[in-house]
Structures are given as structure tokens and as C-alpha cells.
Amino acid sequence: METPKIYVVNLNSYNNGRTRGKWYELPVDFSRIKSDLLLDIEHGEEYAIHDFENFYGYKV
């Protein structure tokens, strides 16, 4: 069985045409996502899950 994954993006970057996103295998520590995607006041704090894999019929 494959590990569930999510693709998370920094919404501020995405909305400004600079996609800043990454695939993560679950479980993942949110502090890692914040660090990788520069989720802060300067770069934007909002994020979104744009894709997912291996959830075996479950919806995210």
C-alpha cells in the first residue's frame, strides 16, 4: 500500500504567479510545511492542498 500524499502550495505565491508548492507524504509536521513553503507574514501565511494521492476512495 502506498503512502498518502498531499500537494500543498503557498497561496500568496500561487496567486502572484510564482508557484511555491511541494508534495508531502503523510503524516507530516506542519512546521516543516511552513518552513519549506515560506509560510510567514512576509511571503503569505495562507496555504491550500491542491492535489492528493493514495487516499483509497477517501476524500480530502
Count of discrete structural domains: 1
Number of helical segments with 4 or more residues: 2
Topology as a string of helices (H) and strands (E): EHEHE
Average pLDDT score: 93
Number of strands: 3
Q: What is the fold-level CATH name, i.e. the topology?
A: Ubiquitin-like (UB roll)
Overall morphology:
elongated
Largest sheet data = 3 strands, antiparallel
What's the CATH class label? Alpha Beta
**Cross-sheet strand order for the largest sheet:** 2-1-3
Q: Beta-strand level of the residues, as a percent range? A: 25-35%
Work out the helicity level: 10-25%
Structural class call reads alpha+beta
Gyration radius over CA: 12 Å
What's the name of the CATH homologous superfamily? Antirestriction protein ArdA, domain 1
Question: What is the architecture at the second tier of CATH?
Answer: Roll
| N-C termini distance | 18 Å
Segments where pLDDT lies below 50 for 5+ residues?
none
Quickly list its features.
single chain, 60 residues, Ubiquitin-like (UB roll)
